[in-house]
Design goal:
With about 160 residues, this protein is mainly alpha-helical. The chain is built from eight helices and two strands; from the N terminus they run H-H-E-E-H-H-H-H-H-H. About 30% of the residues are buried. Bound molecules: heme C.
């Protein structure tokens, strides 16, 4: 018991230092996992440089972390994702990891609407935080913000290890 407590304490103290240099996930692992997303998503910057070739079933995910949900230009979203964005949903690594587990459930919880639906039919049980960390590498500003938010990231991490 005492041992457990000090281990926990160590995690809490180490937390901010880790959050500084790291996101919750592993971007390198996420890059590999992105293979699962490519059927429907590409990563292409505004100048047209392509980082991941992919399909057009889903929106281009360049710069998506830090962006309001449902706002990629010229993409036709489902109404519920747009509504969530209008209600204030901005993608960060934590909420995107949650979204990927089950997009429809995520929208139902976010909108508090049992009938909400996602147009994204793909689900990812594990590794969503890695893909989110990978996507964050295309959002330099969001990364800087995440560092400023380090105490919150630390809380999330402590919860997860329970
Ligand atoms: C079978 C096709 C498909 C696959 C595979 C897929 N997605 Fe999607 N994704 C979609 C569609 C369609 C939408 C639009 C959802 C809506 O409008 O409700 C979407 C939306 C999203 C959004 C919200 C974007 C925004 O602009 O708000 C994110 C983030 C996302 N996908 C990430 C991923 C990631 C990461 C993967 C791989 C782990 C992935 N998706 C795999 C089809 C897919």
């Amino acid at each position: 018991m005492k041992y457990l407590y000090s281990a926990l304490l160590a995690t809490v103290i180490a937390g901010p230092a880790l959050a500084d240099s790291h996101s919750m996930g592993d971007a390198e692992a996420g890059e590999k996992q992105f293979g699962k997303c490519k059927a429907c998503h590409m990563i292409v910057d505004d100048a047209g440089e392509s980082f991941q070739r992919g399909g057009k079933v889903g929106p281009n995910l360049f710069g998506i972390i830090g962006q309001q949900a449902g706002t990629v230009e010229d993409y036709r979203y489902g109404d519920d994702l747009v509504a969530a964005g209008e209600a204030g949903l901005v993608w960060d690594e934590a909420n995107m990891a949650e979204y990927l587990v089950n997009p429809t459930d995520f929208l139902r919880t976010t909108l508090d609407d049992k009938k909400a639906r996602s147009k994204m039919s793909f689900r990812m049980r594990k590794g969503g935080e890695d893909v989110a960390a990978y996507l964050a590498t295309f959002s330099p500003e969001a990364e800087a913000e995440a560092e400023a938010d380090a105490p919150m990231a630390k809380d999330a991490e402590t919860e997860k290890t329970e």
